[in-house]
Amino acid sequence: MNDINNIREAVRRLAQGGRRTTSLICTVDAVDRAARTVDCTPIDESAPLLGVNLQANQESRLGLVAFPKVGSFVVVGFVAEGSAGVVLLTDEVESIEMTISEQSARITADENSVCIRMGNDTCAELTSEGITLNGGGFGGTIKAEQLTARLNAIENDLNQLKKIFAEWTPSPQDGGATLFVRSVIWSTSPLRLTQRTDYENEKVKHG
Fold first, then answer.
1. Per-residue pLDDT tens over the stretch 59-68
2. Deepest of 40, 103, 125, 182, by most Cβ within 10 A of its Cβ?
């Protein structure tokens, strides 16, 4: 067992190049979303750390990055001989961004919404008010049950008129009076004009 531990320690030292790696618990003072860095102060009251990276590659716009809330705790890892390295762990996050590539999946999330984008033409946004697909320019999606009910009302009304004509038989000296009376009865019950609210689901909008 000692031999295995010695090997592990040798590998660790080789990977570190002989440098001692430490970490500090800090509170976040400021967040630079454009630079993807934070300024923070160690809780041991040592010197503040400025421009601590939130990603391994500060210049990258790909991968996963969590923006911590100001005042929350983070664990900062750095090499003792060098400057502050990178935020290793976060306590509370204000938002999260994940970009696999600029041409494919991009996901952002904060306390108000979650947005998923695929390329430049397809997106979905989830909020407490509902779901918006591709900008929601076409309004709410269709409520199938309510729309079917409205269509059935129109169809039933037309079928009543068809029945009136189907059952009417011309009679001598009638002059169409019977047909006229029955059609007048039918026409006195006009259909209510359909409103969008009759069938529109405003919680799910599409574009």
1. 778 888 999 9
2. 40
